[in-house]
């Protein structure tokens, strides 16, 4: 089978490799769609702190099952699936207390272990999550980033009836806003500088504000009232928006940190202490987040198509990164087509 390998930042080569034998508890899938995310871009730029080269990428995927091991019962040949990409120890405190997404020795396919950027992939069956028959492969590959959003919203708690501010309108910020709304938030507003991303959010039914054009604090009061937002989701991972979150948070409210910070954050801990703010971290997802994500899509509560902006054939994998680098905010979700 053909496999794409990033040998160094910005360089992908293809090589023929043998398809591994399928064990009793494993499945072989034929890859259909691979999504490119922000963490993949960090790897392409040589800025991911936990990835070494060479590396096979690919963790946002949809596929079809082509072979199952003798002990597999959760999926069958012909099923459409996505793959949960965490590799965990199952023995540390987080793993034994239902928090395997925080495993002490967590590895993620496409970063610290082999990803799915190949024509076929053999994986433990327990990692496969069955997709509804009617779900497209495009949408199937989007379930992983949606699961990130679902987990982030759940980290806050019961969102029903709450006022939600989302900072950042990239794919994850957009999906966090959509998820909060789908799970019952009373009011949701997104702050974003890019007009393209603001327009995309509006297509997805999300109210927006551009802080370049309108004072953000004033916009918060106008939209939510004098009490402001109940929770702020920081979905970019930069000092500027973290500063905004802390400065504009209502006293006694929550900030969920979704964005991945490439640089050390410098924040006003005096505000955090004096205003009794809660900073809540969120990392990846668990299987229940995938299941909830699939439910939300099945009920028509999530808009994916507006986020899919570009498609690239598997044979031109590097082109995906070129598109993202050159078009920046207009490249929301780039999909790698395997067929």
TrEMBL record:
Classification via InterPro entries: ADH-like_C, ADH-like_N, ER, GroES-like_sf, NAD(P)-bd_dom_sf
Keyword terms: Metal-binding, Oxidoreductase, Zinc
Cofactor(s) needed by this chain: Zn(2+)
Top-level division of the source organism's lineage: Bacteria
Pfam families, alphabetized: ADH_N (PF08240), ADH_zinc_N (PF00107)
Entry's family note: Belongs to the zinc-containing alcohol dehydrogenase family.
Protein name: Alcohol dehydrogenase
Organism: Ruminiclostridium papyrosolvens C7
């Amino acid at each position: 089978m053909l496999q794409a390998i990033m040998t160094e930042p910005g360089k992908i080569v293809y090589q023929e490799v043998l398809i591994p034998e399928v064990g009793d508890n494993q499945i072989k899938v034929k890859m259909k769609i691979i999504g490119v995310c922000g963490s993949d871009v960090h790897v392409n730029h040589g800025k991911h702190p936990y990835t070494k080269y060479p590396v096979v990428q690919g963790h946002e995927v949809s596929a079809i099952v082509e072979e199952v091991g003798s002990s597999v019962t959760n999926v069958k040949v012909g099923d459409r699936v996505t793959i949960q990409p965490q590799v965990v120890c199952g023995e540390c405190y987080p793993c034994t207390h239902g928090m395997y997404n925080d495993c002490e020795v967590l590895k993620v396919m496409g970063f610290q272990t082999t990803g799915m950027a190949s024509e076929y992939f053999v994986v433990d069956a327990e990692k496969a999550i069955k997709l509804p028959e009617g779900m497209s492969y495009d949408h199937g590959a989007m379930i992983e980033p949606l699961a990130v959003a679902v987990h982030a919203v759940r980290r806050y708690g019961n969102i029903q009836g709450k006022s939600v501010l989302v900072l950042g309108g990239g794919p994850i910020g957009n999906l966090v806003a959509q998820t909060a709304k789908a799970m019952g938030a009373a009011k949701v507003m997104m702050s974003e500088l890019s007009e393209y991303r603001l327009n995309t959010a509006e297509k997805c039914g999300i109210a927006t504000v551009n802080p370049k054009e309108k004072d953000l604090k004033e916009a918060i009061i106008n939209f939510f009232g004098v009490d402001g937002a109940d929770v702020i989701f920081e979905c970019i991972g930069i000092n500027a928006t973290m500063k905004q979150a802390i400065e504009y948070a209502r006293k006694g409210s929550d900030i969920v940190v979704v964005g991945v910070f490439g640089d050390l954050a410098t924040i006003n801990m005096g505000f955090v202490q004096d205003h009794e703010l809660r900073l809540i971290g969120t990392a990846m997802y668990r299987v229940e987040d995938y299941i909830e994500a699939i439910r939300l899509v099945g009920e028509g509560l999530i808009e994916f198509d507006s986020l899919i902006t570009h498609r690239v054939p598997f044979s031109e994998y590097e082109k995906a990164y070129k598109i993202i680098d050159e078009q920046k905010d207009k490249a929301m979700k780039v999909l790698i087509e395997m067929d």
